[in-house]
Amino acid sequence: MDAVFWIVLGVVLAVAEIFTATLFLIMFAVGAFAAAGAAALGAPVAVQAVVFAAVSALTVLAARPVIQRHKQSAMESGDTAFGIEAIEGSTALVLEQVDSDKGMVKIDGEVWSARAYDATQVLVPGERVQVIQVKGAVALVWRDVATPAELPEAER
Questions:
Q1: What is the value of pTM for the model shown?
Q2: CA distance 75 to 124
Q3: Which range is least confidently modeled, 4-8, 126-130, 132-136?
Q4: Is 63 helix (H, G, I), strand (E, B) or coil?
Q5: Which of 1, 20, 86, 143 could make an SS bond with 81 (beta carbons 3.0 to 4.6 A apart)?
Q6: Cβ-defined contacts of 9-12 (< 8 Å, 24+)
Q7: What is the model's pLDDT at position 148?
Q8: CA–CA separation, 118 vs 105, rounded Å?
Q9: For residue 142, what are the β-bridge partners?
Q10: Angle at 107 between CA 103 and CA 111, to 5 degrees
Q11: Integer Cα distance of 39 and 72 in angstroms
């Protein structure tokens, strides 16, 4: 009966890992499966718990630094950025006034909700801005890209 408990716990943790994608819960799932093995061999519950804790801890200690070392952004690895990485740092056009509460911008042909990264900035329609960060479906933008009205005549 104890082995079934540990197997169910391992499966639940492995399935939960699918939704978190952190590669953290899977390490506890490995510990649960090891404890299931100990239970199948007839170990008492206290030994099963120690096996679970020890294998989980060893897995975290061994695997986590390796995962962190190999985790790179597309910019660091030289790959083509996609998703939010591709949007952050890009230029956007203000469609509706952007301030600390609301606004709309167009980024690469897509309309996004936007907020001013600096709460004191108010960005007017037609202004070009830079996307500093994306939080959920809201782009945080900053006025640091010269708009055509601000450019000298020779650069327009």
A1: 0.48
A2: 31
A3: 132-136
A4: helix
A5: 86
A6: 10/36
A7: 52
A8: 16
A9: 130
A10: 50
A11: 39
